[in-house]
Amino acid sequence: MAYALSLRHVSYTYHSLKQETPAICDVSFDINPGEFVAVVGPSGCGKSTLLHLIARLLPMDQGEIKINGYPLAISKEKVGYMLQKDQLLPWKTIYQNVILGLNIQKIKDPAAYTKVNLLLKDYGLEDFRNAYPNQLSGGMRQRAALIRTLALSPNILLLDEPFSALDYQTRLNVSNDIGTIIKQEGKTALLVTHDLSEAISMADRVIVLSKRPGTVKSIVPIELSCQERTPQSSRNSTEFKDYFNQLWRSINDS
């Protein structure tokens, strides 16, 4: 079986008229189908750059990225991207927002719209389909943003600090909601975050990048003893503190 996502010796440098700034260097890792992987590291180590490369928003300088065994250049697999802010259009209803991608891609398949309706129902937004974004809480808006992403049936979800704009309590609740939804939908996910607790509570494995230019410093499998693993229950497991300390040392060791 092919990896859902595979990176081999990927490097990227930002260029300006005055200087070149290496962002990542010789990054290699694999993600299995249905796996949730988090990327952590010091500020400026190239975490978001990785997502931009996978999403084809930036061209690679060196290396190779494959999705389900196909090189990125020829892959037809869909990649969903969740940003730090929900980016919901304030003049459109929640339903109009969540089908926006389908409309842009001119997808007319009734099954796609049936799926959207099921997602709204399953994840608590059916009663708010005709509401506008300013009438929803931050957590509900993020759920709507995820449904908009899932509506296009992506093979891989890229999550670029999607909870960082929320207050702490809302962030905990929303990360639990979003993490549970992604697991229930069986999606492969790659999360970039500065929050070590968030990474441990949500991920099957955590990739630690070195300071810029970022390269893979360590990959830590997360194995917790809680019976039904959710982001919320994970934080109460006996191993949680040990993983936190391990990741903290890995990031801060020179």
UniProtKB/TrEMBL annotation:
**Residue span, ABC transporter domain:** 5-236
Q: Which InterPro entries match?
A: AAA+_ATPase (IPR003593), ABC_transporter-like_ATP-bd (IPR003439), ABC_transporter-like_CS (IPR017871), ABC_transporter_ATP-bind (IPR050166), P-loop_NTPase (IPR027417)
Q: Check the record and name the Gene3D superfamilies matching this protein.
A: P-loop containing nucleotide triphosphate hydrolases
Coiled-coil region(s): none
The major lineage groups are: Bacteria, Bacillati, Bacillota, Clostridia, Lachnospirales
| Species | Candidatus Anaerostipes excrementavium
A GO molecular-function descriptor: ATP hydrolysis activity
What are the alphabetically sorted keywords of the record? Answer: ATP-binding, Nucleotide-binding, Transport
Q: What is this protein called?
A: ABC transporter ATP-binding protein
Query: Quick check: keyword Nucleotide-binding in the entry?
Result: yes
